[in-house]
Automatic annotation (TrEMBL):
The gene is hmp. The record marks 43 as: Involved in heme-bound ligand stabilization and O-O bond activation. The active site is at 109 (charge relay system), 151 (charge relay system). This is Flavohemoprotein. Is involved in NO detoxification in an aerobic process, termed nitric oxide dioxygenase (NOD) reaction that utilizes O(2) and NAD(P)H to convert NO to nitrate, which protects the bacterium from various noxious nitrogen compounds. Therefore, plays a central role in the inducible response to nitrosative stress. It comes from Bacillus taeanensis.
Length: 426
């Protein structure tokens, strides 16, 4: 539905004057060099003039420069493919889902457009001629109109489906379960006791919190870590601390301050990294660390609704102390013949060795994947830290797995796994 609308709006690009398209494409080399400087300046001016938008954006990604890089690449892609929109459809879908989940509205687009043009002019100076600014203004207007239309459809779907809602809905923490030394699950039920909308395995929800002492609210996306069809949503949150990064304000607040009975505000489920259930091809789920959350949702769903489909779950953790949700996965694999599960521990403890709860020590590699799977005839889904994802993608390509059967998800702004070029956000 969204793509049909997108192509309908794409006809508007045909109305762009050839000179406008030529001018936009001429800026591609400049954006490749100055893109992040432009987007950094864009956010500085945007938040200075409209501090209320800090209630929408992820502050941590701003401080680390991740969001600036993601936007820079999106602008670069729009310029590069201004006359062949089909090449940016994946980016359009991902951004649309995120915008709907965060609550980005049509009235935000003129503000963003104004400040983007201001940033281009500010960074490039005299090189940003009136012709370039006018061309970008015209192109941005068309792009914004397309996004607004697509996101309107997404908002309507989220609100009007059974159990759906608009904006953020109050939920109560029905149960809080410590899954590992760093991951805790939150079972969330709607405060009003009414039905909640279903979701596709692999999707996420946005959680909005007002932390005492903080001027702005904070929104974070967390994957739903159980199968749909229940009277609750489950998110399994890693407490982010140390690792040469600022401590995660929201994750630590959830872990340390909220208890059963407390409330959280959630937007309806979103996201396009989902399990394809229209095929009988074997499914292989590969995860590292907290990247297992969407994988467990996919695993539980496939096991329940596709009992004839062969499913393999492979997870990498530091050791048993860091391994979350393992008990449920093991139980499923023991009970159902078509489900296999394997675990790789980087630094197993003596207790791990004694209990024999892992299958490989060290890291997941291609030789081990071949040993476990025997064949590459499968759909592969993976998620985890960036180095992990790069290694898995490289192994699958070396094994000649077709690109169309390789699916992955990023937590936070995404990057190109081949050259680490930032492309979009999650």
């Amino acid at each position: 539905m969204y793509l049909k609308y997108f192509f309908k709006k794409a006809r508007s690009f045909l109305m762009l004057k050839p000179k406008t398209i030529e001018t936009i494409k001429s800026t591609v080399p400049v954006l490749e060099v100055y893109g992040e400087a432009i987007t950094k300046r864009f956010y500085e001016m945007l938040f200075t003039n409209h501090p209320e938008l800090l209630n929408i954006f992820n502050h941590a990604n701003q401080k680390q420069g991740r969001q600036q890089g993601a936007l820079a690449n999106a602008v670069y892609a729009a310029a590069k493919h201004i006359d062949e929109l089909e090449k940016i459809i994946p980016v359009v879908k991902q951004i649309g889902h995120k915008h709907r989940s965060l609550g980005v509205k049509p009235e935000h687009y003129p503000i963003v457009g104004e400040h983007l043009l201001m940033a281009i002019k500010d960074v490039l100076g005299d090189a940003a001629t009136d012709e370039i600014i006018e061309a970008w203004g015209e192109a941005y207007g068309v792009i914004a109109e397309a996004f607004i239309g697509i996101e309107k459809e997404m908002y309507n779907e989220a609100e009007n489906q059974e159990g759906g809602w608009e904006g953020f809905r109050p939920f109560v923490i029905a149960k809080k379960v410590k899954e590992s030394s760093v991951i805790t699950s939150f079972y969330l039920k709607p405060e009003d006791g009414q039905v909640i909308s279903t979701f596709l395995p692999g999707q996420y929800v946005s959680v909005k919190v007002a932390i005492p002492g903080e001027e702005n609210t904070h929104i974070r996306q967390y994957s739903l870590s159980d199968a749909p069809g229940k009277d609750y949503y489950r998110i399994s949150v890693k407490r982010e601390e140390g690792n040469n990064k600022p401590d995660g304000k929201v994750s630590n607040y959830l872990h340390n301050n909220l208890k059963e009975g407390d409330k959280l505000e959630l937007s309806a489920p979103a996201g396009d990294f989902t399990l394809n259930m229209n095929t009988s091809l074997p499914a292989v789920f590969i995860s590292g660390g907290v990247g297992l959350t969407p994988m467990v949702s996919m695993l539980n769903t496939a096991a329940a609704v596709q009992p004839e489909r062969k499913v393999t779950f492979i997870h990498a953790a530091i050791n048993g102390e860091y391994h979350a949700l393992g008990e449920g996965v093991r139980k499923l694999a023991n009970e159902q013949e078509h489900v296999k599960a394997y675990f790789c521990y980087e630094k197993p403890t003596e207790q791990d060795r004694k209990e024999g709860q892992f299958d490989k020590e060290g890291y997941i590699d291609l030789a081990w994947l071949k040993e476990m799977l025997k064949t590459n005839e499968a759909d592969f889904y993976f998620c985890g830290p960036l180095p992990f994802m790069k290694a898995i993608r490289s192994a699958l390509l070396e094994w000649n797995v077709p690109q169309e059967r390789i699916h992955f998800e990023f937590f936070g702004p995404a990057v190109d796994l081949e050259n680490e070029e930032k492309v979009t956000t999650r």
